[in-house]
Amino acid sequence: MKYCVECGTKLVTKYLENEGEIPYCPNCNEFRFPIFNSAVSMVVLSPKKDKILLIKQYGRDRYILVAGYINRGEAAEDAVARELKEEIGLDASEITFNKSKFFEKSNTLMNNFYCVADTEDLSGITKEVDLATWFTFEEARRNIAHGSLAEEFLLTFLDKKSH
Ligand SMILES: [Zn+2]
User: How far apart are CA 124 and CA 90, in angstroms?
Assistant: First the structure.
């Protein structure tokens, strides 16, 4: 970020106690921290931890992971539980961090977790999701959208589980 988001003035840096050199707008007289979105996505495991849930969404014929944006004030782990409940109707437990990566296209830091669902029953999915399917680990590896961030997260998870 090189210009003020409010007034467009070129930013300078200024020392802020406990933070260091921070971008600063000399016109607004305010610090301008970097602005980006935060989201979560999740590798959802069946209760027996032998299957992984993949979904199709937004009319696209490709399997991805359940995902959603983090609300302001919300912990990432709480966003995982909320999104899984809202979109699929499942309760999450053992919510554990897997990997994060910045997604430039949507200016979003994507935080991936894995978690365990309370049931394999998918009768509670909402209209936001076109299709939700349980796959074995190997089927999930083959079916996840190739070249996607979801695939990268899934492969990291599978790699951890195989060691
Ligand atoms: Zn400004």
Answer: 8
